[in-house]
Amino acid sequence: MPGSGKTTLGRALADHFSLPFLDLDAEIVARAGQVIPAIFLQHGEAHFRQLEADTLREVTAQPGPLVLATGGGTPCFHHNLAVLQAHGVTLWLDVPVPLLAARLAAAAETKSRPLLATSGPTEKWLLETLSTRTQFYQQARLRCPADACTATAVAAQLAAAGIVLSENT
């Protein structure tokens, strides 16, 4: 979900495991030559979701491990969840809606997120969106509750599941 800390945790995990980090949204922006709000405005969400799916497939086809932060909707479209699961370990950052709303309000990020900018009250949109996305999020291999989403905690979950991450895996 937006505001869950995907990019922040992704960078911390990449540092922890000495792996490269990639933010899928940043990669989409680089390839499209437009920021995401402009893509939504000029081409619509369906076009963005196709760019997202195409970029995800290209990124996951590259050799070598990396930590990838996706957008919150990525696993919910174009069979992207299957792609993610086939190429790595998926992690659901399970953050309660009131905390997501507070984070987004504090960061004043609502205007830069196209789905939030036009959706009305943030908490209502977050609840509705989480309701539709939970079926995808629940399929993640690991789940991290909001109060335990640190690189150290996720590394411990990975170790407990027998998953070893390094530049050589």
From TrEMBL:
Query: Where found in the cell?
Result: Cytoplasm
Q: What is its main location?
A: cytoplasm
> Which residues does the annotation say bind Mg(2+)?
T7
Q: Which GO terms describe its molecular function?
A: ATP binding; magnesium ion binding; shikimate kinase activity
The cross-references to CDD domains, in alphabetical order and at most eight, read: SK
- Catalytic activity annotation: shikimate + ATP = 3-phosphoshikimate + ADP + H(+)
Cofactor names from the entry are: Mg(2+)
Pfam families associated with the record? SKI
The annotated subunit structure for this chain is: Monomer.
Classification via HAMAP family: Shikimate_kinase (MF_00109)
Question: What is its biological role?
Answer: Catalyzes the specific phosphorylation of the 3-hydroxyl group of shikimic acid using ATP as a cosubstrate.
PANTHER family from the entry? SHIKIMATE KINASE, SHIKIMATE KINASE 1, CHLOROPLASTIC
Mind telling me what this protein is named? Shikimate kinase
* Biological source species: Hymenobacter lapidarius
